[in-house]
């Protein structure tokens, strides 16, 4: 018994000793030096990247509720059903719709509706995974129509719920000559997540129908035919420094014919030529045969959105290479001038006065003042000699006409390797201004790469971290999650971006938006369905950095070294000369909390500190439509002049802000 007790005593002493060692290891003294580093935080440091993936535009940010409103899909009646008869059914005697095509117009198709049996025929639109309808909200219903023969004198528009019950109606008299626009306002009597629009016709005869539309009146800034308010509000709350658009791989297209052509996305909405979405058939695990682009959200609307958000517009244009993961189709160098001219014309559209051809187009669309475009991107994720050859031509032409335009070039789709090294080497020779880097990697990679930019050439090109997101499984896996582990790892990485703001000028998470039923790619920053939306832990990490970016980097160190992951602790610090605040960001990826003491020099502090903590009890935790478990919590703390002590919880991001 004595020996047993002796062994227990030794074990207890060992445990106490271990606990003491752990306690010592969990205490950190950080030194904050307010003397100038001469490293400025760029106003456009933290931005948003938008691409029409995951039903991000039609059925998402663009608030139109009618799918295939102008019958332009490759199957012109996709999204529409005729439950009581169609052209090929035995019931066509009641009525039917067929498609008339005029290839001389950019809006090629319209529906010709034949009514033989008054009030019996129905034409129903299913919307984008249904139509989200809010009780008591007002919806603008409109269409273009002309009588071809007979006397169809009214169209009745019913909003119906999942069971087919009518929740709102409008009856529109057809009393105009020629192809004319008709409109009405419908107010649903109940909230419906997956509603539909049903059209019935009074009278008999033949009617031509086009541009059938249903829009909520309550859009962002209450613009007719505008953007979904709750989604734009979430972007606005990020205080983004830039908006990168329209992608992404969607810029390139699977083929050159399917590339994004900005000139087809401006002007009269009814005349914008529809295009198959590049993500339509990309992933076998998430086929989307009804995924097209109406371009109701086009380049004018992108510029307008950027202006609304107080962000710099950053358009990315095709460089004449289709997606190299698909066809890799190349425009011959002899034919590249058309693509280059598109870039020059876009700058004129954005910045030219009304005396210029494209400046007049912008003014005629309702924006006489220039958009003050400063950045333009040439290509998205292209690589190799073909890209460099084409980039040189674009750069020469743009700089010759617009010498102050800042050009974004690309280093390919990977964060390292042969393509990456070749791209950087060649672009450095060309004195490229900003090079776009992309990385979709594991959470561990993001933690390990907080020092990625510490040794980049300070005199070389600057970096645009244009697409990044931690992947819980693997890139493009449908099983990736927006877990707290991914967000925390991104936060650790972002301290490295901020510390190296003399190299890293711009950053954006990707992708931005995802429909809960219409997604192709995970993870994503903001999730939505037809009625509501929620933000991920990753969103809150982005928001805490963007809302607290400051103006100048200052040094924060431990034992004379930057805080870059030793003992799973990361930190960066800035001052905001406008608000006269010191802002410290600390990330703890350890499963244990850490006691932090911060000593400062060359800084004058007030007595009140705001401490904002973002954390969760489990690394696998996520937010969802029902509950945002993971969101920042703030508290006010009194501090002594020149130093402060605080606890950084396990697996947390903490932002300390002091006047």
From TrEMBL:
Coiled-coil residue spans: none
One Pfam family here: ASD1_dom
Every PLD phosphodiesterase domain range: 149-176
Gene Ontology MF terms in the entry: alpha-L-arabinofuranosidase activity
Keyword annotations: Glycoprotein, Hydrolase, Signal
InterPro entries, per database record: Alpha-L-AF_C (IPR010720), ASD1_cat (IPR055235), GH (IPR017853), Glyco_hydro_b (IPR013780), Glycosyl_Hydrolase_51 (IPR051563), PLipase_D/transphosphatidylase (IPR001736)
PROSITE patterns: PLD
Family assignment from sequence similarity: Belongs to the glycosyl hydrolase 51 family.
The protein's name in its UniProt record: non-reducing end alpha-L-arabinofuranosidase
């Amino acid at each position: 018994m004595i020996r047993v007790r002796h062994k227990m005593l030794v074990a207890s002493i060992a445990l106490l000793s271990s606990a003491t060692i752990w306690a010592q290891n969990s205490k950190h003294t950080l030194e904050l030096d307010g003397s100038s580093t001469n490293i400025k935080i760029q106003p456009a440091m933290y931005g948003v990247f938008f691409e029409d993936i995951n039903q991000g535009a039609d059925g998402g940010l663009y608030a139109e509720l009618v799918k295939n409103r102008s019958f332009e899909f490759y199957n012109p009646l996709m999204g529409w059903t005729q439950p009581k008869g169609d052209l090929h059914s035995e019931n066509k005697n009641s009525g039917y719709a067929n498609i008339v095509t005029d290839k001389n117009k950019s809006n090629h198709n319209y529906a010709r509706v034949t009514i033989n049996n008054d009030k019996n025929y129905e034409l129903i639109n299913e919307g984008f995974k249904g139509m989200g309808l809010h009780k008591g909200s007002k919806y603008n219903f409109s269409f273009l129509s002309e009588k071809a023969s007979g006397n169809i004198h009214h169209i009745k528009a019913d909003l119906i719920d999942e069971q087919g019950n009518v929740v709102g109606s409008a009856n529109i008299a057809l009393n105009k000559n020629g192809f004319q626009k008709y409109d009405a306002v419908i107010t649903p009597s109940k909230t419906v997540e997956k509603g539909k629009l049903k059209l019935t016709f009074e009278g008999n005869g033949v009617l031509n129908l086009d541009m059938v539309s249903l829009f909520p009146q309550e859009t962002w800034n209450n613009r007719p035919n505008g953007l979904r308010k709750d989604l734009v509000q979430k972007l606005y709350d990020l205080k983004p420094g830039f908006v990168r658009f329209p992608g992404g791989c969607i810029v390139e297209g699977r083929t050159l014919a399917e590339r994004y052509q900005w000139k087809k996305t401006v002007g009269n909405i009814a005349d914008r030529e529809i295009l198959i979405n590049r993500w339509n058939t990309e992933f076998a695990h998430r086929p989307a045969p009804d995924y097209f682009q109406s371009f109701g959200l086009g380049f004018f609307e992108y510029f307008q959105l950027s202006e609304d958000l107080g962000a710099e517009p950053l358009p990315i244009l095709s460089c004449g290479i289709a997606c190299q993961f698909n066809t890799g189709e190349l425009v011959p160098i002899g034919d590249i001038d058309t693509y280059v001219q598109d870039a020059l014309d876009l700058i004129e559209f954005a910045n030219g006065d009304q005396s210029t051809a494209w400046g007049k187009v912008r003014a005629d669309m309702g924006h006489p003042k220039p958009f003050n475009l400063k950045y333009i991107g040439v290509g998205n994720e292209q690589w190799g000699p073909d890209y460099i050859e084409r980039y040189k031509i674009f750069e020469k032409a743009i700089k010759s006409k617009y010498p102050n335009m800042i050009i974004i070039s690309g280093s390919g789709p990977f964060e390292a390797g042969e393509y990456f090294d070749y791209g950087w080497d060649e672009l450095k020779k060309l004195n490229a201004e900003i090079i776009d880097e992309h990385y979709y990697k594991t959470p561990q990679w993001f933690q390990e790469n907080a020092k990625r930019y510490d040794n980049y050439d300070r005199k070389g090109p600057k970096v645009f971290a244009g697409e990044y997101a931690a992947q819980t499984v693997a890139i493009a896996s449908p099983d990736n999650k927006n877990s707290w582990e991914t967000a925390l790892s991104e936060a650790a990485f972002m301290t490295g971006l901020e510390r190296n703001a003399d190299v890293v000028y711009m950053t954006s998470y990707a992708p931005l938006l995802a429909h809960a039923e219409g997604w192709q790619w995970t993870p994503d920053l903001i999730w939505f369905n037809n009625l509501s939306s929620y933000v991920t832990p990753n969103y809150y990490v982005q928001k805490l950095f963007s809302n607290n970016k400051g103006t100048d980097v200052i040094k924060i160190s431990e034992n004379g070294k930057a805080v870059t992951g030793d003992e799973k602790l990361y930190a960066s610090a800035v001052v905001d000369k406008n608000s006269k605040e010191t802002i410290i960001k600390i990330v703890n990826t350890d499963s244990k909390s850490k006691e932090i003491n911060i000593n400062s020099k060359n800084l004058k502090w007030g007595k009140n500190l705001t401490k904002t903590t973002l954390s969760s009890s489990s690394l696998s935790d996520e937010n969802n439509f029902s509950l945002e478990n993971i969101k920042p919590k703030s508290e006010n703390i009194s501090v002594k002049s020149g130093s402060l002590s605080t606890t950084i919880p396990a697996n947390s991001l903490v932002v300390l802000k002091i006047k």
